[in-house]
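#lab-general

N.A. 3:47 PM
ok so I finally got the sequence cleaned up, no stray characters, all 125 residues accounted for. can someone with queue access submit it? mine expired

B.Y. 3:52 PM
send it over

N.A. 3:53 PM
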Amino acid sequence: MFQATGPARSPKPLPHPLSLCSPLAQSFSLKAQVKEMCTACQKTVYPMERLVADKFVFHNACFCCKHCHTKLSLGSYAALHGEFYCKPHFQQLFKSKGNYDEGFGRKQHKELWVHKEVESGTKSA
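B.Y. 4:20 PM
back already:
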């Protein structure tokens, strides 16, 4: 009924799924070695206390308004140039100068162009 058609082969043992050669094991070992650091305090952030806002990692307690240091949540913040504010202070700082740059302590973007034009001698009146 059953006939052997060739030499008998013994089955090859499968590699252990977590052997050091397997890509799965390498990805686990790399993830285990990478420690995320809090953007605010520069200390290690563990998964239970991890909060990510605009691709920045924080401890829950470290995610605070730059102006008043009120604790922020993902639904109650506004960000500009990697700095985080509560919504009331974000609006207040914007309204104080009428633009995002001066209100938040930066030079206006148009002033950067004026300096470049003066240096190159192409200023037009």
